[in-house]
Design goal:
Elements (H helix, E strand, L loop, with lengths): L1 H8 L2 H35 L3 H30 L10 H20 L1
Helix pairs in contact: 1-2, 1-4, 2-3, 2-4
Length: about 110
């Protein structure tokens, strides 16, 4: 519910910035998971458990593919942002989250 308020109550620029950050977080988590599965598959490969190593390698590659998709979506979402009037920083993201939370609070009161 809070995520819904964050994405639908802020202005267009803030929504796209939030979406871009969420895609980046997804890409990071999936990349780390993919690398973990690949590391596990290499470890089991060295331990001579061929079947589970191949399955773990495939799962790791799927994680990395989803991570690549997340990176592409984050960059695509960022490219859709209108040109900034000034440099966009972490303060702008914090302001967007605070504004969306305030709108969510007032909506719950009504």
């Amino acid at each position: 519910m809070l995520g819904e308020h964050l994405l639908f109550s802020a202005d267009l620029r803030a929504r796209r910035l939030i979406r871009s950050v969420l895609w980046s977080v997804l890409a990071l988590v999936m990349a780390l998971g993919g690398l973990g599965f690949i590391g596990a598959s290499l470890w089991t490969w060295f331990a001579s458990l061929w079947g589970s190593a191949a399955a773990s390698l495939v799962v790791g590659l799927i994680f990395l593919a989803v991570a690549l998709f997340g990176v592409l979506m984050a960059s695509f979402t960022r490219s859709m942002l209108p040109p900034p009037r000034r440099a966009v920083g972490i303060d702008d993201l914090a302001q967007a989250f605070l504004a969306a939370a305030e709108v969510g609070r007032t909506a719950r009161r009504k």
